[in-house]
Structure formats: C-alpha cells, structure tokens
Amino acid sequence: KAEASYRRAIACDPSNADAHLRLGVVLTEQKRDREALPQLQKAVELQPGQATPHYHLGALYRQMGRQADADAEYRKVREIHAATDNGVDVTGAAKP
Hints:
The protein is mainly α and 96 residues long. The chain has five helices and no strands. The chain starts with a helix and ends in a 12-residue tail after the last helix.
C-alpha cells in the first residue's frame, strides 16, 4: 500500500524527493535493489545537501555489495553532519 502511495505522489510531482526516498526505502526493505536504486539516486539528486538520502543510498550500496560506493555515501553523510552540527557532537556534548 505504501509503495502505491509513493508512486502516486511521484506521478503527481516527480520532484518530490521525500516520495522518492520513501519508495526507495520500501523497495530496499523488500530486497528489490534494482528498483530501489534509481529512487534513492533521484532523492540524492533532488536533495544533495540532506544526509538521509545519502545514508539510505549508502545502505543500499552496501546491501548490493558495492562497498566503495557505500563508503562514498557515508562520507557524504559525515560531511553534511559536520557542516551542520553547530559545534555539538552527536552525543550532545560541546566539542573541544
């Protein structure tokens, strides 16, 4: 049911990055990697400065055995977080 809803949302607005991301996640969970890949790539294309699409694309690459691609996506996630963390690490403690 979720898949149909996300596909409908994309049909209405192909620039809906969230729908591409969520559809990609649903397909990844169903091990439908070949279908998930273009959805997650589109989500990254539409929102290159957001960490979540990069994270899920990295997870899919890892699931597909594409470790170098996964590592590149995870590096991008770390870069985005580093640029937006406002001097606080992920534990909430102030950085030295």
